[in-house]
């Protein structure tokens, strides 16, 4: 079977697609990747401005003419809400390109690039309509996404649910590299205190205000480290003491090795992720949570999107999202015996987030009739 993966060049989806392609190739399948290059994205990084809608569409049309789509048994589409690859299905249909089997991987539940940044609401509508009508099958990263998208499409969508897998366990990190990474993300005075790492870029769905407010009610001394791009500007500080909690910010792009180390060395996972206030953006889940569960970490999540179905019985779901309730869950997991009970359940859930199992799910989907 010959597979073509449509993928953006950055943003995190590219990491997942690359890892998935590697695993499929290990299983003996031919996998090629296609997408815009970094200098072909909707945001012109050289001139530091958004392209016009027409310029963006022209880039897409140029890229889709680089391959013979009919030569592939399956074309799998991966894109986020602001990736130019979301226009590929529209352009392919407009060009009358033949595709043997198309599968959409539902990474996001909103596609706002053209309306929010390129001033083209009509094209946004085209993109969304293509999501519901251009694909033979769908891979949903949770029951939440399946139900949400089926409801929006107003008709049944053929496909399967397979949870988003972890993507960093394969990274080989030496002891010296581990020490270097921890030294980067921990200050000298924090080394003897248990640390919670909060890795990933700043985003609207990450309720940092709820997290910071909850720290006022944490019972004992710990460190909390915001590790990722955009946090210094969003938080307005690099270091702050909040009651018992030393709070640090390391504003930098995280490598795969850093994600692996921070997930494994964090005392627990905290995920104050929730639906943003924007009515045009829909939250379904997190690519970081699988890394923590796979690392055997107990986690605290809000009752939002697919977070409860991912964490299952391996963490605490805060159903009433107040700072005191979130702190109560953190305090509960600060008890070693309680935390260990959840960690044992996280280890049992590891197969749900295995990239090997996920890749086999994808292959089975590709092989089924539609």
TrEMBL record:
Domain of life: Bacteria
Pfam families assigned to the protein according to its UniProt record, in alphabetical order: Glyco_trans_1_4
Name this protein carries in UniProt: Glycosyl transferase family 1 domain-containing protein
